[in-house]
Amino acid sequence: MEAGTGKVDDLAALAKLTEQTLLKELELRYGQGQIYTYIGDILVAVNPFQQLPLYDSKHSKEYRNIKVKSKLKPHIFAVADCIYQDLLTNKEPQCCVVSGESGAGKTETTKLLVRQIVQLCTKSGSVAASSKLHDALIEINPLMEAFGNAQTKMNGNSSRFGKYIELLFSDQGELFGGRVSIFLLEKTRVTGFNRDEQNFHIFYHMFAGLSERQRTSVLLTNPDRHRILKSGDSCSIFTSKAHQLHHKAMFIKLQKILTNTGFLQEDCEMIYAYLSAILHLTDIQFEPDQETDGVFITDEYPLHVSTELLGVSAEEMATALISNVHLIRGETIVNLKNLVQAGDGRDALAKALYSRLFGWIISKINNKLKPDLSYAPKKSSCPVIGLLDIAGFENFTSNGFEQLCINTSNEQLQHYFNQHVFAWEKRDLDKEGVKTSHISFTNNSEILGMFIERPLGLYALIDEESKFPKATANSLLEKVRKHLIKYSCIKKEKGREPLFTIQHYAGPVTYSVSGMLETNRDTLSQNILECLERSESGMIYQLFSAQFSDNGELSTPNQELRRTKSILMCKQPTLERGKSLSKTAGRKVRQNMKKALKEIQDDSFYKHRTVGSQFQDSLAALMTKLMQCQPHFIRCIKPNNSQASQLFEKKLVSQQLRYTGILETVRIRHEGFPVRLPFQVFLDRYKFISYPLTAEVEAGTAACHTVLREAGLHKWELGTRKVFLRYWHPEQLKLVMERKVRQVVLVQSLVRRFIGCRKVQQLRQILEARKQAQAKSFLMMVAELSQQIHADLKELHNMDVTKHKQSLNDLAREAEESKIREQMIEEKRRKLALAEAEREKKAAELRLAEAQKRIQELETTRKVETPSSISSSSSSGFEDDLPSPELSKEEPKHTWRKQRANHKDHVAGLRNLLESKAEPPEQENVRLNKQKWVPISERLYATPACPYGIARKSPARPLHLQSIFSDPSHGQVYDPENVSHYARQSSHSKIVVNKVEHYNGLIQEALQSESETQNKSNWGKLVYMEKSQRCASFILTEPVIKIDGAHYSSDPSSHVALNSVENLFRDEQVGKIREYIGKGMQLQIDTEGDIWAKKLGMNDIIVQDHNDPSLSCISEEVIKDRGRLQKDKRVKIFDMKEFRSHVILEMHKAGLGRINLKDLYSRCCIVSLTLVKSSMDIMETPCWINIINLGALRMLRDENVMADFEKELKKIMRSNIDFTKISQLPQIDKQKPKKTDKKKGKLPQRKNQEADKVFVLPEPVLDRASKPVGDFQFKSPRKWAKLKQNGVSQLTE
């Protein structure tokens, strides 16, 4: 395949390659979205500056356990799989060095590597160990980025520290722990940074994410007032609203990560308070003090805030900031600082605070990743995979000591790369006598020597000059020019500025000497350290009593921390006018400057390691770890400086390719031998290709040649002690090994099958013989047991016969005694029934006489009464019976004139009914008695017992017609067809029509639903209304239903939560009423079909039409309470007895013709309740419900039931009841019917069967388990006593 087509996945496979064709190939692949390219075993990654769909679970599975790498596209996941497979195969530590410029994508590449390696080691057998560390390893990178990354000119998320992540594995490849090492944190960014750059991310996350209350608790106000957060001339720390929202989202994510990593809520709040102290500390400004020749603090508010947060004395901190302590010949000398020294001391304190906070966070991370000893290998060392991510090569407008250290570490990594790829391979080839073409590369050994050589290297000179207090930048520059002039890679720049230029492998970089000495010293005066060590805050004491370990974490002491004060309890400081702590402290120091306080301390106590020496030690420790590992390299390329996608700047990319030696790398990977194995190691891995696994083979050229020829490899070389292989040879050898292993496994499986079949045949023969022996012994045992069982059964049979005869005799005796007892009980019941009938007969005669007398008095009064007398009578004669003012407000407003006109008509109707036994008028559906409400069922039957199973607890009385007029508060007659008593305005009359239509619509829906579902277990339907709007409906199946104002239903089958119902057209009144529903009420249906209601809360619940019972089937108790339900009192709101009476009355009005079922449906099957009473019409009620009794509805649709109703009406009309003569009332036979003859199946014949024949009317019973609602169950006469208690009545013809 030719170069320049964009289709070459491995550049080392090209025979000829120039810099131009290499650049063209990378550009074409970048335009096609192929950001990864192989150079042998090295991966080149070009930053796309956009999200690509290359890292989902599909790609993760695709690049798992790769057999042939060339069959898949280059990918970062392929490198992760190669590292993991080499770890399992070679049993050696592995490392991956990710290098490149700042902004090339090194941090993202490292995160992808960690994620894929964790996925690879998460197998079915090791899930327990890996799953605990998976989330932690994924989340530590965002946590470290928040505290260690910042925005620079070259990268918006630049790493300002280096980190080395180590993943610890068991011998089986199971991940059981991890460790993070950091070095070279850019502490100077805390106190200052270049233009168009920013401080560490955590400061901006904190201001964008903390609430107002949280910021106040840590004494933070306006973020724009802090000096170290301002960038250039910008007035706000956030460049845009989107910038602020981004930091807010990152803060929320950081909060979750801190919690998952093991930080407590108190720890997080302490971190924010700690950062607030740093912000206020850096806001302290100094000015010269003419009185003491020192300095003083201009505004002491930041001083008081920072000391309050740090838990130290403000006066002691002010003294430490303006003075310094020196140990000279065993004496402690205190002197005042000048303006520059005071500023440097303040900044050094801020940098020390931040670096120790970062080290403490790293220690918490390592504690979370601490290895699980139950999975650790028994040997001292374990397989490790190390991932190095370090800040890339940097070249800014102004470069200081930090850039010098960063570029030095990149020079060291480039040298490590050159050594592995070029120098060591060339050395081995020459040593083994293998001839190859000459390959040149850029060797940077000279520049590394210039940096780290002792005693005259650059870092050694800076350390030496830092020891002199009076050393300056010019003196350091002069010393560099004098001692390093021999190196061609460094030269002094012309001009007044103290500058020098170093020719790095990536290009020349000019460094400014100004500030290098101060940055390298990075020491705090002893009085500041002592002040912080005496802090009352437990966290500050912990951070400054601990020491930094080699990996950059803060090793905390084991003793228990004292927590005498929490910085979370800080209060806003109050300043006294005219008082300056710093001036007072300066005067005290000035007075004591000449006094020497002797201390018993050694001079070494005040010796501190410089930043340069610490950096060299950490870099040496890092290189020691890398040298012990098998390296894998990833080169990251930045395509442009503007961080734009699909933009490929050839000049910038060409420069990176040139100084990273990519072209030379391609050539050496094409012609060189990156895999160099000693003979013994080669044979230990691959001798199975040509020799038996247990064979002893001498490690020599012949054996290795045999293996290589058997594997079919080409272009390999054999030296005197090593085998030299191309980069693709290990993959081919692995495939040959796998093929050999499969062949061996196949042969082994066939042999095992043969051996297994022969063993199975032998086992079958043994089992067959064993079965025959067991069967023979079993048959003998069965024969013996059968004989014994036969004898035992015969003996038991004889015993059973004797017991049976004895039990028959006992039963006959008990039956005779029971018969005698029943006869005695029957005789006693008959006598009691006759006495009860006689008493009821006398009571009926008295009630009838009283009623006739009352009618006569009313007629006499009406004849002599004039209109004026009527008015006076209503004000005098009925004064005692008038309703109370409160109750009269609730009832419809009627005039007594209209009432008396209606009363006259009803008296005439009653007279006709009593004299001519004609049909009662239609308006006489409900009458009220002065003492008690008399339902229609009692008027129709006027008997102690009523057909259709209506139970009476007390005998019925004759109608007291006079009570209709004597008590206006209890006696009113309503005409259902005349709505004048109901509607008070014409608009309300229209609403009444809507109500009828609404009820008819509900009935039609219920009928349609019944015809579709045919579900007899549903006993009712509930419709929730808001004014005239229908909001929701519910099918009722459970016998007990709770209706309340809850926002959700705890049990959908038995709980109706009205506040869960939504209504888009709900007005303010309805919304207010709904909040007052509260506990609501409880509905219950009994076995008779009656519906009971019980109010559970304090709010009103009104039964509608309570003042006109002809419109519904309500009970007497509802009328007495004027429709109101009483709290925790069960009231019958639907009476099945009244329902049956309404049906018979409707039949009577229709003259045994076809009744108006539509009117019966809406009048007799629906009961409505108002949840909050309103004086307006019912359709304007804010919240109300309709309850449809589906059992009653089914009865009206059942032709058998309606036929029984018609039969009952005919019997009542044929009974020739004369209410004027009590003797003509039907007699009730209270005697219990005799038992039926079981053989003939009928009652014994009596002398007068027509007069005394007893029959039981069928009663509809709501039985969901056995029969549907509406079916009749005929009761047996022998169960009369029990049925009487349950409410089943009997009538004698």
Structure report:
Mean pLDDT is 76; it is low at 124-129, 557-564, 594-606, 866-904, 913-934, 936-993 and 1217-1293. The protein is extended. The protein has a seven-stranded mixed sheet with strand order 1-2-19-3-12-6-7, with helices on both faces. The longest helix is centred in the middle third of the chain and has 136 residues, at 729-864. The chain has 1293 residues and is an alpha+beta fold.
Could you give the topology of this structure?
Elements: H1 19-31, E1 36-39, E2 42-46, H2 57-62, H3 76-90, E3 94-100, H4 106-121, H5 127-148, E4 149-150, E5 158-159, E6 162-169, E7 175-183, H6 201-209, H7 212-217, H8 241-261, H9 265-282, E8 286-289, E9 294-297, H10 301-310, H11 314-322, E10 323-328, E11 331-336, H12 339-368, E12 384-389, H13 401-432, H14 445-452, H15 458-466, H16 473-483, E13 490-492, E14 499-504, E15 507-512, H17 516-521, H18 526-533, H19 538-545, E16 547-548, E17 554-555, H20 581-592, E18 597-598, H21 611-627, E19 630-637, H22 650-659, H23 662-671, E20 675-678, H24 679-686, H25 701-711, E21 717-718, E22 722-725, H26 729-864, H27 867-876, H28 885-890, H29 896-916, H30 936-941, H31 963-966, H32 986-1013, E23 1020-1026, E24 1029-1036, E25 1040-1044, E26 1055-1057, H33 1068-1074, E27 1081-1085, E28 1091-1095, E29 1102-1103, H34 1116-1120, E30 1130-1134, H35 1136-1149, H36 1157-1164, E31 1166-1170, E32 1184-1189, H37 1190-1197, H38 1199-1214, H39 1249-1252, E33 1254-1255, H40 1280-1286, E34 1291-1292
Parallel strand pairs: 2-19, 3-12, 3-19, 25-26
Antiparallel strand pairs: 1-2, 4-5, 6-7, 6-12, 8-9, 10-11, 11-18, 13-14, 14-15, 16-17, 20-22, 21-22, 23-24, 23-32, 25-27, 27-28, 28-30, 29-31, 31-32, 33-34
Helix pairs in contact: 3-4, 4-5, 5-8, 5-12, 6-8, 9-10, 9-12, 11-20, 13-14, 13-21, 15-16, 24-25, 32-36, 35-38
